[in-house]
From TrEMBL:
Broad EC category: transferase
InterPro entries: HATPase_C_sf, HATPase_dom, His_kinase_dom, HisK_dim/P_dom, HisK_dim/P_sf, Sensor_HK_Regulatory, Sig_transdc_His_kin-like_C
Lineage, top ranks: Bacteria, Pseudomonadati, Pseudomonadota, Alphaproteobacteria, Parvularculales
Listed Gene3D superfamilies: 1.10.287.130, Histidine kinase-like ATPase, C-terminal domain
Pfam family of the protein (one): HATPase_c
Residue spans crossing the bilayer: none
Signal sequence coordinates: none
Enzyme Commission code: 2.7.13.3
Catalyzed chemical reaction(s): ATP + protein L-histidine = ADP + protein N-phospho-L-histidine
Protein name (database record): histidine kinase
Location of the Histidine kinase domain: 1-221
């Protein structure tokens, strides 16, 4: 993780220095704009890494507070898309929102489900090739649960890679020694934030086809309990069917 933190920070320092001394470098207006964009992209990447570290630390400590209320899933997804756009544009990845249900409401902690969605979108962009796209959709299940689906068209993961990605919090080494290659800890953080408030997390990945993740929270005024480890073991292997016209 040291490399992931230093690289964007060095880029920020380097390009900021060139902008400050633009006369010495004889930078034109277009070059200054380009370098400013590089700084914004690097700052966004660095902020994402820092937020991930903070989320991991909070989950490791077991001191994550939940403040449940009614959540507008359409607004939540729009906000998450806006937060990831800079990174997606820098990677040359398009985010396409498919038509879904209107007025989809769920019950849970908006901040935590927002963080889960952020991690899933960032991971989808990270797993995508330049020129690829990420499909997203909000819908309501037959039982009234509010659901967000996110699908990338990347290389996909094998069963072993998917297992390791979801079990990252069981690693012996902590903090900066964690594995950050591949999907990193994004799937594991999202799964934990969703299931700790009684939500549902499902993931399906196929090599050379990509990955589909679905997260769902119950409708308002439905009492649910956080999923225990034993229940997770029973439900983790149940993957949703992939639909050609859905995220």
């Amino acid at each position: 993780m040291n490399h992931e933190l230093r690289t964007p920070l060095n880029a920020i320092i380097g390009f900021a220095t060139m902008l400050r001394d633009s006369e010495d470098y004889e930078l034109g207006a277009d070059q200054r704009v380009t370098y400013a964009e590089y700084i914004l992209q690097s700052a966004d990447l660095l902020l994402g890494h820092i937020n991930t570290l903070l989320d991991v630390a909070a989950l490791d400590s077991g001191k994550v507070e939940l403040n449940s209320d009614v959540i507008d899933f359409s607004t939540l997804l729009n906000d998450a898309i806006n937060r990831v756009l800079v990174r997606a544009e820098a990677a040359g990845v398009a985010i396409e929102r498919l038509e879904g249900d209107a007025d989809v409401l769920g019950w849970g902690d908006a901040d935590r489900i927002g963080q889960a969605t952020d991690h899933l979108l960032h991971t989808a962009v990270k797993m995508s090739e330049e020129g690829g796209k990420v499909l997203v959709r909000v819908s309501q299940t037959d039982k009234g649960w509010a659901e967000i689906a996110i699908r990338d068209e990347g290389d996909g993961l094998s069963n072993e890679e998917l297992y390791e990605a979801l079990e990252v919090f069981n690693e012996t080494l902590r903090g900066l020694d964690r594995s950050w290659m591949g999907p990193g800890v994004g799937y594991a953080i999202a799964k934990t934030f969703v299931e700790m408030q009684g939500g549902r997390f499902s993931i399906e990945s196929r090599l050379d086809e990509g990955t589909l993740v679905q997260i769902a929270l119950p409708p308002p005024n439905i009492d649910v309990k956080p999923i225990e480890d034993s229940e997770q073991d029973e439900t983790e292997q149940t993957m949703p069917e992939r639909k050609n016209d859905a995220a």
